[in-house]
Structure formats: structure tokens, C-alpha cells
Amino acid sequence: GINGRVHGNRLDKTIMASQPDTLPLDVQYHKLIEWLQVRQKLPQDWQKKLKAARLKLTAAVTNAANISKSAVQTSVTSFLSEQPEENMNYFRAQQVVQMLIQSAEGQEKTLFGNYSSPFIQEWQKAVQGLSKDNLYLAEAAQIMVQNVNYEIPALKKAVTSNDKQIQELTRRQQDLKRTASESTKKFEEMCKKFQIKGDNFRAELTQLANNLPVLYEEIVSQLQQGGAMRAVTFYRSFVDMLGAKGNESSALLPYLAYICEFGNESIALKQWRDSNPNQPPPDSLMNKPKTTNTTSDAKESAEAGGAIDWGISSAGDSTGIDWSISVDDQGTDAAPATIDWGGGGDVATVAVEEGAAIDWSATNETVEISTEGTAATISWDISANDNPGIVWDMAPPAEAAAIGGISWDVGDTTTVNNVSAEPTVSAESAQTLFQHTDSRNEILNDLLELEMFLQQRLVEMSASDELSFSSQFQAAATIVKEQSIDSVQSYLKVIKQAIKTLLSPQTNQLLMISQSPKFLDRLVSMLQQQSDFASKQLQAATALEKKKDECLRVISVSQSQLEKLVDMVFELKQQVESSMTKLFDRKVHIVGEINKISK
């Protein structure tokens, strides 16, 4: 250290000797303390002394904020509040002392020439402590190094970092808003797809599924008005002509033919029509299915009509049973009365004498009726206890007792268990053909089969000329010969439209909604998530806006601090240069990065 100082002194003396006294001295700002030490302008223990002097200055600043203030003290306090405590230095303290000396309090002195005001005395001692041994130059050098090397770059970095963060937040905010817009658009498309407003998902979807019957009726109406039944007849006749199905062509496309003729009826009604092709269906099937299982209902029916209606109608007397027994005009048997049992071939006859009674009393023996000329034997195997649920002990109505002297041999009460005068319809049978999965699939299969046939016929008819087509089907049914390319295209258009409607995603979703509560729950959850996602994206964008505001606030504060620090550093630099010029009686310049700082 001593050799360095000696070498430094020799070098300095050599430089000073070789240069005129008018040349300025350039001192690096970060080596100012070392430069002063080399020239013995600072004591070796300058750090310890500077710390003690700084304590006095800090105490003076603190007391200025706590004591009761006069007018001048108030102005001093206002001046100090504008200066950060860490930037308070010797030169600022000198400004405070000058303000105090020029005040009215500064004019009051003791007999020994000291100031009477303890406030002024405290500040004067703080300034004197820093001026001793040139400690204020070391203090100024520390402040310049701290601000130029650390504080100012940190503030600039904070401004740059927050500016970049604002740009990133703006980009993310735009992405979130774009995602929210896309999500909202997708949500609106989903609502449009399901034809709902989106206010109450579950209620609107449930109501939408309730429109399925209307959709089915539209399909049926299109098929009926578009000539789908003629297309079915055309297909059947064509198959008959080719002999591909034998005598089964009438069974082709049964479900499609049914809905074209009768519409979208219930499964139970279709089953009844198939079993009773030539009879009108009962009202219970045409309207709402009804089941009667009580004994009281049967009793009320018997009491109201005087007899139990077995569903047997007679051509003559409405009160009698037609046993196919011929009677002459005079009321006597024209021939021995016979009962036709429908055996075929020779008719099995049972003679019924006038006045004789048919004994219907139950026996446990097998009833056998043999026919002459044949070996056929009809065994009825009717046992009195075959159906224990029916008790035939009822009194015969007066009208029935008068017919042919037939003895009913029944009691006076009627009990019918689990027997209804009308067909019983289950919940599954009450579904319409389109509602029931199996029947709907059968209808779709019939439509697809007919579509393939019509497409093939259209290709064949388009490939052959009219003359060859007419000669080819001369022996065919009229409906086959009547078809043209235009008519087949018309049928095909109607069939394709029905298939498209049945297989459309909207129809399938409506079916799932109406048949699966779990699917409805998932669909509602999906719509709710899509709606919530857009809201969450907008909320996130709003949160980013708050972060942007915070970054802008930090930038504003940092920029303000940066401007004040830069101004303070340049001011301090000039003050140090002025003080050192007086100290060395030569012009001194502080050089280095300190001159490159900017706001």
C-alpha cells in the first residue's frame, strides 16, 4: 500500500510537473475515494468517521419531522420530504442550514456568537461533521457509485421488464379474448344446432325432445304424400314378376307399408291389426291404452247390459247366439239340426232334438266327436278345472234361457280375474313405431332396401331405351309398366329425404335425449362447460388487464424515480467537481460512465 502510494505520488508529481497548472484533472467517478486517499485528502479511518457523521445527519432529519414546527421549520420539513432519506447528503444539508440561517430564528444568537435555536445548532453540527476531513467528498463518491452502478440500472431494468411484461400481457389478453370469442361462437353454434336459446339447457333440450312426434309425423306425411306406398307396391310387383320371393312378396317392407297406410301408430295397435286384418281396432288402442283387472268392473258391465258381452254378433236376433242351425220359416227344423264344427271334408253332425237341451256341465272326461266316413277324431280335452280362474256359476239371462231350451247349468254370480273386456297394453307396446327402437330400425331397413331397389331400377331404366323397356315388361303388372325415370326419381327423392332425416345427428341426439337421462346430463354438462369456458376466458382477460395497470404504475413510479436520481447524480457531480476544484486549486472533471447515464 505504501509503495503504491509512493509510486502514485511520484507519478502524479511527474504528470503535474509535465503539465501546466491550467490543465484540468480527470478523475474516474468509481475511483474518486482511492484518488483522494492517494493524495492524503481522506484519513485512513474515513469510513468510521463518515458513519458517525451520517448518524448526526440522520438524527437531524428525524428530529425535523417530530418536533413542533415554526414557519421556517415547516418549510425545511417540506424541503426534506421531497428528498429521499438515502439521497440526503452534505450539499442538501448545507441548503437546509442556509434556509435556517436566513430565517428569523437564524438571527438570534448567544453572547458567544452561537445560534440560539437548538434546531439550527443540530443541523450546523451535522454539516460540520461531514465537512471535517473532506468526509463529504467520500460520501458524495459513495452516492454516485451506488446510483450509477446499481440504482439507476435497476430502475431502467424495472421499466424495461415491466414494459415487456405489458407486451406479453397484451398478447395473452388478445389470445384469451380471441379464445373467448371462438368459444362463444362455438357455444352459439351448439345452441343453433340444438335449436335452443341457451338460457336453460335442461328445460330447453327436454322441450326440444318433446317435438319428436311432430318430426315423425312430418316424415310419415312426406312418405304418404310422396307416393312411398306406390313405390312399395312397385317393388313388390317387380319381385312377383321375377319370382324371386315366391308368394312372399306381400311380406316385403312390412313396416314401411304399414306407416304409409296407417301412420305412426303404437306397437300394440300394429300387433292387433296384424292379428285381426279385417276388423276395426278397439277404441282403447286407437286412443289411450287402458287395462281393466278388477272384478267390480266386470260386475258393473254385466249389470248394465243384462249379460256379458262376449264379442259375438248375430245376424238375426240380437239376443241370441248364432250356432249356424237352419230353421224354416215356421220356426220348425227343416232338417235335423246340425252344428258345423269346421272339420272339413265330411261335416260332423250332432243331432239336436226339439226340446232337447245341450248339457254344458263340466265333466272330467274327454269329449270326442267322430265323423262318418272318416277316421278323424276331434279331442277337445276340456276339463272343468282347466281354468280355475273362471267360475261359470252364474244365472243365465232370460234372453239366453229362451233360446232353443239350452241349459246353461251355471250359478248366480260372476267373478272374472285378470280378464279385461279390452286388450291390455304394456308401456313398451304403447310406444309408437318410431319411438320403439326395434320398429324404428325395421322402418329404416325397409327404407334402405327400397332405396337400393329404386337406385338400381333408375340405372337400368336410364341405360335401356323405351322400346326395349316396354317389350321387356309386357307381362308385368300394370304398376311396373307405368313407371318412368321421372316417377322413380320422385320416389327416390322422398325415400332419401326420409332416410336423411332419420339418420341425421339432430334426430339421433333428440332420441338420446328422450331415451337416456344420462345422455341428457352429459349434454347439459357439455353446454354448461362451453358457456363457462368463455366466461372464464373473459375473466382471465380482465385479470390480465389489472396486471397491466399494475405494470404501468410500476413503470410510472420507476420512471419518476429514475429522472430524479439522474438529476440528483448530475447535480452531485457538479457540486463535487466545484468543491474539488477549490480544494486542489485546479479544474477537476469527474469522468466515466457517470456522464453516459440518461433518464
Q: Report the order of strands and helices.
A: HEHHHHHHHHHHHHHEEEHEHHHHHHE
Spatial strand arrangement across the major sheet: 1-6
Number of helices: 21
SSE class = mainly alpha
* SS elements, strand count: 6
Cα-atom radius of gyration: 58 Å
Shape field: rod-shaped
Q: Span between N and C termini? A: 39 Å
User: What do the pLDDT scores average to?
Assistant: 75
Oligomer: single chain
The description of the largest β-sheet is: 2 strands, parallel
Unreliably modeled segments? 1-8, 288-421
Strand content: under 5%
Summarize the structure.
With 599 residues, this protein is mainly α.
Commentary on this structure:
It is a single chain. The chain has 599 residues and is mainly alpha-helical. Helix content is 59%, strand content 3%. The protein has helices spanning 2-18, 32-38, 46-66, 71-81, 90-101, 118-131, 135-194, 201-209, 212-225, 228-242, 254-262, 267-275, 283-286, 295-305, 398-401, 437-463, 466-472, 478-482, 485-503, 505-515, 517-584; strands at 25-28, 368-370, 377-379, 390-391, 415-416, 588-591. Strands 1-6 form a two-stranded parallel ribbon. Helix 3 (46-66) packs across helix 7 (135-194), helix 8 crosses helix 20 and helix 8 runs antiparallel to helix 21 (517-584).
